[in-house]
Amino acid sequence: MPAVQETVDQVRSLDVDQYKYGFFTEIESEKAPKGLTEDTVRFISAKKDEPEWMLEWRLEAFRRWQTMPEPNWARVSYPPIDYQELYYYSAPKRKEALSIDDIDPEILATYEKLGIPLRERDALLGIQSGGSKVAVDAVFDSVSVATTFKEELSKAGVIFMPISEAVREYPELVRQYLGSVVPVTDNYFATLNSAVFSDGSFVYVPKGVRCPMELSTYFRINERNTGQFERTLIIADEGAYVSYLEGCTAPQRDENQLHAAVVELVALADAEIKYSTVQNWYPGDKDGKGGIYNFVTKRGDCRGDRSKISWTQVETGSAITWKYPSCILRGDNSQGEFYSIAISNGYQQVDSGTKMIHLGKNTSSRIISKGIAAGHSDNTYRGLVTAHRKATGARNFTNCDSLLIGDKCGAHTVPYIESKNSSAQFEHEATTSKISEDQLFYCRQRGLDPEEATALIVNGFVKDVLQQLPMEFAVEAQKLIAVSLEGSVG
Amino acid sequence: MAMLNIDNLHAKIDGDHGKEILKGLSLTVNPGEVHAIMGPNGSGKSTLSYILAGKEDYEVTDGSVSLDGEDLLEMEIDERAAKGVFLAFQYPIEVPGVATMTFLRSALNAQRKKRGEAEISTPDFLRLVKDKAANLGINQDMLRRGVNVGFSGGEKKRAEILQMAILEPKLCILDETDSGLDIDALKVVSEGVNALRSPDRAMIVITHYQRLLNHIVPDFVHVMHKGRIVRSGGKELALELEANGYAEYQQDAA
Ligand SMILES: Nc1ncnc2c1ncn2[C@@H]1O[C@H](COP(=O)(O)OP(=O)(O)O)[C@@H](O)[C@H]1O
Ligand SMILES: [Mg+2]
């Protein structure tokens, strides 16, 4: 892993507390009026030129949401959110961009700064210098501003487009699957999302097709006091395969911002979906001021026999993370995986984990979670593994390791296990450790400074999960890990 | 000028009631010299090596240490390393998940950077490791494993010498490198160390037994006891100790 060296360089080149993506793009935007009413929902739906059924779906969600209490069971605390003080829709003002050259140069520059090439020829340059081909959907506040390699993908029959477009162009597909994994009524934040979701990606990979490149969506919150409610729907039809990456950043601001996304994955028989996230929302400053509230519902349905869904997440950002990417193992012999690295520093709070719901026969799941807590942060792994009555031969292996840096942070493991089938085999391992003084001394004796040494030890700790990420993302993630731990060692 | 000059060094365990371990130790080491430090267990040999490397568990209460005329005690741990101080640990530490290869490269580049040198290129690095590893009987598999994780006692010691060979330090401190080695491993390790002897490199070889000194022949032998050097001589002093043991010092202690 030569990336360690880059990690080290990265640490060097930045000062403590410097969130690299904290800049704001000066751009005129069009917003929905502040606050949330039925009119807001109608406004968003109209902006997106949605068919009637979509509006009805949203309104139903909105009415439902008004009757729901905000959940409080997670080990996180924050002052009450005033939902009427937020903007629910914000879009860069320029009219519909028909080609990449119509996109506001400010936005192009923003993504360039973030290292995301939106021009296909730039992306191709990157490939020539050793990278692999990745198609990108770029979501800026509430709208998708560009999607690359669409044509090439469509040759393979793969649909990859903003979900707002899919609602118009593939209404049957969207209608069939939207809300089929995360029902409208699922939970407070998912219901809110269902009412006001703005954009996100839609992917459909047809029968027997192996998606010819990695797909990725890059989310950026730019506007002030604006929530981002993205909605992603990925369907892998029988025997299909797709690998999808998600990245996110936001400007540095003193106030908290809400991000409540819903991601639904559907894998039909023999299909496989690999979903990777590198989450780097603004985490707040060193005193805990500002940062994103990341309240996300992600769920995959292994609907067909022998299907497989694998979640890999590297969570380094956000002031608060509330997120449990889960798998419903419905098909016989289906498999679910969850690989997670969750790093918290400063005053960040992370409550994250997964649910593996074994419904089918001989289903198996694997959970590897690495939590790293530094500073004054709190880091909780919360997991649920269940086997239903018919889940004969269900198997789960869970391994949760926590690493503490310093003595003002906390790590907690909350595993729930339920089995209604006596043949189910669930294994659980958990460890909590501290970076030892001896390890630091040893590394420093060999020439590494304290931050380099910490980054190296932590990278070793998370290696099993990093290996699950596509190559380019693994390198990114390593850098991010080092950056997010800055200032954590005296 | 001496490379290392330790003058009347007093040190105690850090903390209010820490006990004093080094009680006025003096030693001068010139480039090219190999000094053996022998002595009964508990006399403070490892403590001396840790203090030279900068471990934070100890407090120096008196005396001084200079490296090439600079105050060594003022330097950070990693700064000392970059200036060429290397400690081969008596008990090497495990760093799980970090491949030995990655560790070596990170360490080498960190030192080079601190010295204002360019990073080593990948092909050069691979060539360097291949050469040095082969001489020490270290295979590719070991280089891919986590640092010291699952290594046998002998493998750990060989890996320490490999690190030393790659980092090319100015001052090598070897703490009981012979402990836990069988005779064949002892030969391999000693050859590795001897290959590094050079007119501008100095070594301090700490050992309890004279056996190692048959293979790494020292220029000077010192006997350490109760935190002080109580006798110094040439290599024949080691043989005398071998014959008589440390009994006379231990009686002292009683
Ligand atoms: N970190 C420490 N804390 C407490 N006691 C220590 C520590 N380091 C060394 N000592 C004590 O100091 C004395 C010298 O130890 P050491 O330097 O390891 O001797 P040697 O290497 O010669 O066997 C011993 O009595 C040992 O128990
Ligand atoms: Mg010792």
UniProtKB/TrEMBL annotation, chain A:
Domain SUF system FeS cluster assembly SufBD core: 219-461
Domain SUF system FeS cluster assembly SufBD N-terminal, residue spans: 150-211
Name of a matching Pfam family: SUFBD_core
Family from the record: Belongs to the iron-sulfur cluster assembly SufBD family.
PANTHER family given in the database record: FES CLUSTER ASSEMBLY PROTEIN SUF (PTHR30508), UPF0051 PROTEIN ABCI8, CHLOROPLASTIC-RELATED (PTHR30508:SF1)
Protein name: Fe-S cluster assembly protein SufB
Organism: Ancylobacter radicis
Lineage summary: Bacteria, Pseudomonadati, Pseudomonadota, Alphaproteobacteria, Hyphomicrobiales
Gene name as annotated: sufB
